[in-house]
Amino acid sequence: MKNVTDSFLSLSGWPAAGSFGFNIDILSTNLINLSVVLGVLIFFGKGVLSDLLDNRKQRILNTIRNSEELRGGAIEQLEKARARLRQVEKEADQFRVDGYSEIEREKWNLINSTYKTLEQLENYKNETIQFEQQRTINQVRQRVFQQALRRALGILNSCLNNELHLRTINANISMLESMKEITD
């Protein structure tokens, strides 16, 4: 440190102009050279440096402005997308509700249709049962009548002789003749 302060103090003791000499003290020489270079850089480079910094500042501001515009556009698009999402969700809910009500309506239609079909089948079954019962009853009546007729014929044949048979036929013929006369 002593050499640095000595070099500044020794500046006052420099020889007058016209003499030229070498300074062997490296620290004081470097410090002087560095201060001269910094002074020249500051003097001549101030304009260039300020232009570079201004350009850089403008680019940063433009980038920030563009980013803000993009951010605003993105926020606007996000709001539109959210609004569209809400609309689509409402439509989906409506479709869901409509679908459920349609399913419920179809379910009740199917239940009613099935009930009516079962009712018709029950009626057909009852009609078929009644028809079969009536047919069976008629068959039984016919058999009973045939058996009764056979018995009666058997009894008549065994009880009637020719003379009784002729008298019955004559009585029936006279009844038919009297009926014929009445109708004429």
UniProtKB/TrEMBL annotation:
The main place the protein resides is membrane
**Where are the annotated coiled coils located?**
71-98
TM region positions = 31-49
Q: Which Pfam families does the record associate with it?
A: ATP-synt_B (PF00430)
- Give compartment(s): Membrane; Plastid, Chloroplast thylakoid membrane
Its Gene Ontology molecular function terms? Answer: proton-transporting ATP synthase activity, rotational mechanism
Q: How is this protein situated with respect to the membrane?
A: Single-pass membrane protein
Q: Which domain of life is it from?
A: Eukaryota
- List the record's Gene Ontology CC terms alphabetically: chloroplast thylakoid membrane; proton-transporting ATP synthase complex
Q: What does this protein do?
A: Component of the F(0) channel, it forms part of the peripheral stalk, linking F(1) to F(0).
Q: What else is known?
A: In plastids the F-type ATPase is also known as CF(1)CF(0).
Q: Which HAMAP family match?
A: ATP_synth_b_bprime (MF_01398)
Q: Which family does it belong to?
A: Belongs to the ATPase B chain family.
Name by which UniProt lists this protein: ATP synthase subunit b, chloroplastic
What organism, scientifically named, is this protein from? Answer: Kelloggia chinensis
Organism classification: Eukaryota, Viridiplantae, Streptophyta, Embryophyta, Tracheophyta
